[in-house]
Amino acid sequence: MENWQNIGRHSIKEARSRIDQLIHWTPVLRCSAINKLAGCRVFFKCENFQKVGAFKARGAANAVLKLNKAARENGVATHSSGNHAAALARAAAEAGIPAFIVMPETAPQIKKEAVREYGGQIFECAPNLSAREEGLREVVNRYGATFVPPYDHCDVIEGQATCAYEIFEEGLQPDILLAPVGGGGLLSGTALSSQFFSPETAVIGAEPTGADDARRSFMAGKRIPQENPDTIADGLLTSLGELNFDIISRYVSDILTADDGQIIAAMRLIYERMKIVIEPSCAVPLAVLLINKTLFKDKEVGIILSGGNVDLSRLPFR
Question: Which pLDDT tens digits describe the chain residue by residue (318 residues)?
């Protein structure tokens, strides 16, 4: 396992400078109607406005830019059905190197098109983890490309940590910072940034009840693999990473869950009140806030809106 303890205050600042030309410093928005409904003061860090429409642009850019010259020549590879695929393809294109992306044949066409638009070469496989991993092995062996995982990787975590770093750099020091958790790249990076730049801020993860391996792992003190996840929050279906779990178990205060009905209601609330496009995974933190109001009452709460890549023809409300 990599040593994530090499990620520190200085390295996160360096990462933010390193990726500066490849990402947006995303805005922070507030909504008085949501404040009133929630019974606390809420602000939203809008990664739905990020390059490729998600926070994943940060970790992918940092990982690619940290490659040495020899590794860059052979390009990068990953397996992903979503935002990491597009983020890595774009980062590779900006660096002038090839990207080889193994994607399940059932991946949304809009996400395949995004990878191709960024110049990524797609290798389709059966829609299961073993097929994805076998496809990745074949690609790495054939091209000598460097595997960049979507979350269980120090350079990726370091890049994702820049999101919370921006919050603190703006002078915001919330009592609680909420982030969704799937593989754990964003939540672990957020926890590290909070430790270094705002240690009084408690970090809480938000997860769907239909894919709650992170909460179960957190409570058990050991990683419990995801099995048969069932949730509308399709960006949070994956199992928690090893590095990510180690960081989360040390520095995250709690992981709360919400069911799909609650997630959809929170998603709709953001559309109606804030007039911005988010994907279902993005709404999970607001959902857990709204069903745990006493925990957040009268506090300053930050929510990271993780992305806005949603198929508008398949919105879960009308």
Answer: 688 999 999 999 999 999 999 999 999 999 999 999 999 999 999 999 999 999 999 999 999 999 999 899 999 999 987 789 999 999 999 999 999 999 988 877 778 889 999 999 999 999 887 898 999 999 999 999 999 999 999 999 999 999 999 999 999 999 999 999 999 999 999 999 999 999 999 999 999 999 999 999 999 999 998 888 899 998 898 899 999 999 999 999 999 999 999 999 999 999 999 999 999 999 999 999 999 999 999 999 999 999 998 878 888 987
The sheet with strand 146-147 has its strands ordered as 121-125, 99-104, 76-79, 146-147
Each domain of the chain, given as residue ranges in start order, spans 4-54+153-314, 57-147
Q: Domain 4-54+153-314: state its class.
A: alpha beta
24 burial (CB, 10 Å; 0-12 / 13-18 / 19+) is middle
